[in-house]
Amino acid sequence: MTSSHRESPTGPAETPDGADVDYWSFVDYFAKNAGRNMPWLDTDAAEFFMTLHRAFELIVYDIRGELDQRMSSAALRALLVLTTVGPSTLLRVAELTGMSRAAASALLKRLESDGLVSRQPSADDGRSIVVAATPEGKVACDEAYRDYNAREAFWHDRLDPEEAETMKRALSRLAASVSEIRRRS
Amino acid sequence: MTSSHRESPTGPAETPDGADVDYWSFVDYFAKNAGRNMPWLDTDAAEFFMTLHRAFELIVYDIRGELDQRMSSAALRALLVLTTVGPSTLLRVAELTGMSRAAASALLKRLESDGLVSRQPSADDGRSIVVAATPEGKVACDEAYRDYNAREAFWHDRLDPEEAETMKRALSRLAASVSEIRRRS
DNA sequence: GCCATATAGTCAACACATTGACTAAACTTG
DNA sequence: CAAGTTTAGTCAATGTGTTGACTATATGGC
Questions:
Q1: What is the 3-state secondary structure (H, E, C) of chain B?
Q2: Count of CB pairs separated by less than 8 Å, A with B
């Protein structure tokens, strides 16, 4: 963020032309300048969500790097669901991971062919198939998630416990509110 | 979250079997139960990032709904970059929006055919093309972002100013740290 | 029991994004 | 200035997601 050149003779420009801006510092640049073009803008809200979005993207990208070529993050999510709630129908996996039925269908088929999950027709409901993590699936999940979680811990440790608590509380409140508001509409 | 049936005769189960869990409440369920299978787990870190991830996904999905069929969120990002920093090379758009050059190339071509941006060969550098938002592009961006930002404000207003400030500060610190750590490796 | 309706999973069509190879235009360094 | 290297943009291949149509099975009212 050293603004090297491109300063007016009278000192640093008040409205930099964005030459030194990068992905992350664009948040700041936008917050300072966007109000000029868009007087209706709620700058605080825009800056808040842009910060959330970009910071989160950077951090999650870093954490995801731990998975490397082992498995996709969607696969990890599915396996974590299966290992914590136990064997579940495809629909349930879709709901708990947040993906569509079609995506879950495709993913679980891939995971089956990799030997990480088993798919059995349900005894209770002829339409359902019950998916379960195989022993190999459990091992793969364990190994991948171990490194993934270690990297989560690496970042989490860089927050004050109080900061982390505040963030969790605030986001939980909003998330609960989303579900509630959605339910009404 | 009413746990209707499936309670042991002696009262609510201490370790629910997950029958009533949904996408959001899975965070809680996971935090309470995953440690059993994975004793090495940093539960706080896992819960923190799962909360962040899922809450953010829910909220962003809601906000994105304001764009509806008007434009993709990638298109909005690109147009916001172009309208705030002004005409830029394709590479610069890619950097500031966080997409790959190939993705930017495809997106900007689409936007050009929709009449929202113009693409001119650069006078300075024969390899570059300079992209600018057209008047129609500025209008489309303005209209779409107005509603988008209103929805951002809707959620932002549901946070204490102090909570929002804490979150911004904490995430900014981590994001800066990501760039720094990445630069070293 | 039968028929209308809803639900679980799959499939096909489409929408993007990523990676890596490729082309053309810059630089760089003797 | 010529040869090698880097850089900007594009293209093709691939991966993975969504939506909506479709099939087979359940369910509920009569």
A1: CCCCCCCECCECCCCCCCCCCCCCCHHHHHHHHHHHHCCCCCHHHHHHHHHHHHHHHHHHHHHHCCCCCCCCHHHHHHHHHHHHHCCEEHHHHHHHHCCCHHHHHHHHHHHHHCCCEEEEECCCCCCCEEEEECHHHHHHHHHHHHHHHHHHHHHHCCCCHHHHHHHHHHHHHHHHHHHHHHHHC
A2: 214
B11: which strand partners? Answer: B8
Domains and CATH numbers, chain A: 18-64 (no CATH), 73-151 (1.10.10.10)
Contact A174, B177 (CB under 8 A): no
pLDDT for A15-36, tens place per residue?
Answer: 567 778 999 999 999 999 999 9
Q: Determine the distance between B100 (CA) and C28 (C1') in angstroms.
A: 27
- Please report, rounded to whole angstroms, the spatial distance between the CA atom of protein residue B120 and the C1' atom of nucleotide C30: 36
- A11 forms beta bridges with A8
Does the CB of A105 fall within 7 Å of any strand C atom? yes
Say yes or no for a CB contact (<8 Å) between B48 and A81. no
pLDDT tens figures, B44-68:
999 999 999 999 999 999 999 999 8
3-class DSSP assignment, residue A119: strand
Are B83 and B50 in contact by the 8 Å Cβ rule? The answer is no
| Helices vs strands, H then E, count in chain A | 7, 3
What residues 67-106 of chain B have any CB closer than 8 A to a CB of chain A?
80-81, 83-86, 88, 95-98
* Residues 19 through 58 of chain A touching chain B, CB cutoff 8 Å: 21-24, 26, 29-30, 33-34, 37-38, 40-42, 44-49, 51-58
Which positions of chain C lie under 7 Å from any protein Cβ? Answer: 7-12, 15-21, 24-27
What is the spatial distance between Cα B110 and Cα A85, in angstroms, rounded to a whole number? 44
pLDDT at A14 over 70: no
Question: If phi over 0 gives left and psi between -120 and 50 gives alpha, with beta otherwise, what is residue B170?
Answer: alpha
Is A125 (CB) below 7 Å from strand C? yes
